[in-house]
Write a structure and sequence with these properties.
Blueprint: H1 2-20, E1 25-26, H2 47-53, E2 57-58, E3 66-73, H3 87-98, E4 105-112, E5 116-123, H4 125-130, E6 137-140, E7 146-151, H5 152-166
Parallel strand pairs: 3-4
Antiparallel strand pairs: 1-2, 4-5, 5-7, 6-7
């Protein structure tokens, strides 16, 4: 499972590097070194170090507000989305938000065997007025905000430059 997750993280880093023409890498050791109970480590690290240890992907230089997690699993209970509560999704969101700072663009890259590749993006007024959604599903939580679930390729086909801008990158 660890090798599968690491491979997906490298795939996403390469995808983003190719898309934006700058270097994204898998976080060393992966996981949020500065998230959750480790957030106090931010007090002694400089901005570059914090970015390097936040989430699963170390973003390119011009993406200071990107906070990304990557999940690769055999299956996902899509049917639970209709009930409004997916415990597995809630735990991933919590993990993503543990490493997040105010103003970050929070995204989870997900891959499920024989089902596809998806993104789960936290949405707010900036994202809903800036981004285009197609064949998507809104997932609203009472404690972790609103998120949109969408096919990864479709999302970036429609929103590559807008997403870059939300993450702090200059117009692509």
């Amino acid at each position: 499972q660890k090798a599968k997750g690491s491979s997906w993280e490298r795939d996403i880093a390469k995808y983003l590097s190719d898309l934006y023409g700058e270097t994204f890498i898998r976080a060393p050791g992966s996981g949020a070194y500065v998230g959750g109970t480790n957030s106090k480590r931010k007090e002694v690290l400089h901005e570059g170090q914090i970015r390097s240890f936040k989430g699963d992907i170390v973003p390119g230089q011009s993406f200071p507000r990107l906070n990304a997690e990557c999940k690769s699993y055999a299956d996902f209970p899509f049917h639970q989305l209709f009930s409004g509560q997916v415990k597995q999704l809630d735990s991933w969101i919590e993990q993503c938000l543990d490493a997040s700072d105010p103003g970050d663009t929070n995204i989870i890259f997900m891959k499920f065997n024989r089902k596809g590749k998806f993104i789960l993006l936290q949405i707010n007024t900036d994202t809903t007025s800036t981004l285009n959604f197609k064949n998507h599903f809104f997932y609203n939580t009472t404690t972790q905000g609103s998120w949109v679930l969408m096919d990864l390729a479709t999302f970036f086909e429609l929103n590559a430059s807008q997403f870059g801008e939300l993450c702090g990158a200059a117009s692509q």
